[in-house]
């Protein structure tokens, strides 16, 4: 029920922004909100006055992915919400493109997300706070892209079992993703304890973690559409990739921890990170198992090893991310 209410409120906001297409937002001046939970609050006047409608559309997504209940354990609420939000992006796209009937809903949504990236790039602030905000806005877009790529793969599944296995893989990935985000954040805090640089490094690393899975889904969408090998393949055997990730996480805690630091909060973060790393193999293996079931269902003999290397590629990227806190 809550997701439906959020969707209709979002639709009302979008419609109210779209009702007068004759007004050019470049020549309007908007009174910025004082709601610090809103994307508008953190957006420069230059961006607001360039395309206020798009800022409000992105704000709907921004606030949803920052709700206390995001993500839920089953992801069913989020999948439904993102599907409804995709229709809002498509409505925005259609209003700007008179001949768009041959463009898929997914492509329309991707196009609007790209437009949003271009909009925010016109006024980038490279201060510490500016970089945190920049990364946080990009985080919003990447989370949607992950769900959009999931939707694309679901749309090309040929059986209900394929759809079910993909859903399970996605759920297991998000569990792993959330745990790894915490581990990475803690490692950054341990390494840069008390330093302002921790914010940009931490939020920048988050983007790389989300991008891992976006890349995976994008590649496998291409694989399902063509079989000529027209995609990058940098994976390895699966077991060594898993071992690499575990070893890098273990060494990261040694590299980034300062034993001389006796702050109680610092010690608490260290102990929490040790616990998270002890339970990490369980979530990694659960995701790998879900991936293997998906691979077995989807792949032909020709592509079976490619799917496995795709899994290993994600693990290698994660190992690189945890090793690159600097």
Quick description:
By secondary structure, the protein is mostly helical. The protein is 72% helix and 0% strand. It has two domains: 1-156, no CATH class; 157-326.
What features would you describe in this structure?
The chain is built from eleven helices and no strands. It has two domains: 156 residues, no CATH class; 170 residues. Helix 1 runs parallel beside helix 4, helix 7 runs parallel beside helix 9 and helix 9 packs antiparallel against helix 10. The N terminus is likely disordered. By secondary structure, the protein is mainly α.
Write the layout of secondary structure elements.
Layout: H1 2-18, H2 45-50, H3 52-64, H4 76-96, H5 105-120, H6 128-156, H7 160-191, H8 198-225, H9 238-256, H10 264-298, H11 304-322
Helix pairs in contact: 1-3, 1-4, 4-5, 4-6, 5-6, 6-8, 7-8, 7-9, 7-10, 8-11, 9-10, 9-11, 10-11
Which runs of at least 5 residues are low in confidence (pLDDT < 50)?
2-9, 11-27
The helical percent reads over 70%
The helix-strand sequence is: HHHHHHHHHHH
Secondary-structure content class = mainly alpha
Main sheet attributes: strand count, strand direction, barrel closure: none
The amount of beta strand, in percent, is under 5%
Number of strands: 0
Distance between the termini: 44 Å
The overall pLDDT, averaged over residues, is 88
Coarse shape: flat
Number of helices: 11
Radius of gyration: 21 Å
Tally of separate domains = 2
Features:
mainly alpha; 2 domains; 11 helices; flat; 326 residues; single chain
